[in-house]
From TrEMBL:
Organism ancestry: Eukaryota, Metazoa, Ecdysozoa, Arthropoda, Hexapoda
Species this protein is from: Aquatica leii
Family matches, as SMART domains: ZnF_C2H2
GO cellular component, one term: nucleus
Name of protein: C2H2-type domain-containing protein
PROSITE patterns per UniProt: ZINC_FINGER_C2H2_1, ZINC_FINGER_C2H2_2
Gene3D superfamilies hit by this protein: Classic Zinc Finger (3.30.160.60)
Amino acid sequence: MLTHSLLKPFICETCGFSTQHKSYLKSHMLTHSLIKPFVCNTCGFSTQYKSGLRSHMLSHSSVKQFVCETCGFSAQHKSSLKYHMLTHSLVKPFACDTCGFSTKHKSILKSHMLTHSSLKPFVCETCGFSTGYKATLKIHVLNHSAVKPFVCETCEFSTQLKSRLKSHMLTHSTIKPFACEICGLFIKYRQNLKKHMKIHNSILDNSH
């Protein structure tokens, strides 16, 4: 009966996320953690979730079992096919209540809504940088530290964050572990994949 209740007693102290289940909160808390125990042996990709690693491993496979009946596009993930199917639809179900912006993707609306928010309660005491997320501030504060424990064995590069070292190591590699599920392009860096995906999203939203 708990699933039919509006009561969400388990609350994240970092961002205010709330849920009806303690296990969901425990899983959510990993999004604020720098610890990523599940590592890909092929390319070094790491994630907080076992399911995330399992999903990532498909990027190293040539098998694409989910096929679009409209155009023949194929994908390794069912969610990617579902995302792709929106390209054949004129419907933009996710609308902004503030300005009327609409999109086919919930994630894009969520990102858009941040443009209407000025709430950034977490402030850096050193430089005044502010953010809406405690975890983001914690990462930012490391920029002011002279300690750089993560060192590249190939060159003299060093950094405060393990994730930055992993990203840097790709400059010494020809591996491109991140694949675009829309067009199949392989990309070296996750942030570049995000930028690439925005191009697809922009084209999709402007085409109708």
